[in-house]
Amino acid sequence: MTVETQGTAAASGAGATARFRENKHFSAATSQERVSRLAGRVIKAINATVLDEEVSYDEYNALKAWLIKVGEDGEWPLFLDVWIEHSVEEVANASRQGSKGTIEGPYYLPDSPQQHSPATLPMRDNEPGTPLLFQGQVTNVAGQALPGATIEIWHADDLGFYSQFAPGLPEWNLRGTMVADQEGNFQINTMQPAPYQIPTDGACGQLIAAAGWHAWRPAHLHLKVSAPGHQLITTQLYFEGDEHVADDIASAVKPELVLAPANRADGAGSEVTYNFILDPEE
Ligand code: DHB
Ligand code: FE
């Protein structure tokens, strides 16, 4: 067992909660009418479930204990990003013409070290896994190159752990902000990520075990791609042949986001090309 596997749900949950608070990427501008409508509908939906399913006091108290534990374990970011965010993303990006987006998840960090393409993401000297060359071009919806494009990329390592959220990993490991060339082209050398299991020792893991579900997300690259005058897209890319592509616990896979890397001619791992298409600013 390496030091990385000693991470706990409480540690990664606390990290994700702190990260969310720091980013403050929301405003409190929701009107009273909207709060009343949304909160009212959610409460009504829960009451309808209780009545339909004839929920007992034992079940109600189990729910109460579990909700308290989600908070104690710092797992609200994890719970929401796994089971709810995909619908929010669907609404937010419904009118896009360009590349598909998907959920951000709890492990994004802004201001990762900037590098100019072609470049290799920060990694350990002995970083485990298979090298992956990820390359492509950023264009607008008319197919024109977008100079000044940047590709923020972050992903788990070969054991499924994210730097800054698991112990024993160097800061910024497998995270970077890549500046594309004048034609929007980028080449990023990294390591193939592994399938990721959401923390199983906290409240979310308890729910998964009690329900007989599984905790897996398919291996994925996280990306935020932007260019001047264009809408930023937050997305993920997956890998063909990964068994969890078909049953992602976070419901975040879309067919357009599945890559099929090929073995490199020089034998140095695999390579894949994916082009990003950005919508104009609204
Ligand atoms: C979670 C982790 C991820 O890496 C991700 O992309 C989405 C959700 C989670 O643990 O909740
Ligand atoms: Fe992830």
What does this molecule look like?
The protein is α/β, with parallel strands linked by helices and 282 residues long. It has a domain at 91-278: Aromatic compound dioxygenase (Protocatechuate 3,4-Dioxygenase, subunit A), CATH 2.60.130. 28% of the residues lie in helices and 22% in strands. It contains 6 helices and 14 strands. The strands form 3 sheets. It has a 6-stranded mixed beta sheet with strand order 1-5-4-9-10-11, with no helix packed on it. Strands 2, 3, 6, 12, 13 and 14 form a 6-stranded mixed beta sheet that branches. Strand 9 (221-226) and strand 10 form a beta hairpin. The relative contact order is 0.18. Bound molecules: 3,4-dihydroxybenzoic acid (DHB) and fe (iii) ion.
Q: Pairing-aware structural class of the strands and helices?
A: alpha/beta
Q: Total number of β-strand segments?
A: 14
> What count of helical segments does DSSP give?
6
The SSE order reads HHHHHEEEEEEEHEEEEEEE
User: Which kinds of small molecule does this entry bind, naming each only once?
Assistant: 3,4-dihydroxybenzoic acid, fe (iii) ion
CATH topology type of the domain at 91-278:
Protocatechuate 3,4-Dioxygenase, subunit A
Runs with pLDDT <50, length 5+?
1-6
Helix percentage range: 25-40%
Mean pLDDT: 93
Rg over CA atoms = 20 Å
Give the CATH level 1 class of the domain at 91-278: Mainly Beta
The CATH superfamily of the domain at 91-278 appears as Aromatic compound dioxygenase
Which structural traits does this protein have?
alpha/beta; Protocatechuate 3,4-Dioxygenase, subunit A; six-stranded mixed beta sheet; 14 strands; globular; disordered N terminus; binds 3,4-dihydroxybenzoic acid; binds fe (iii) ion
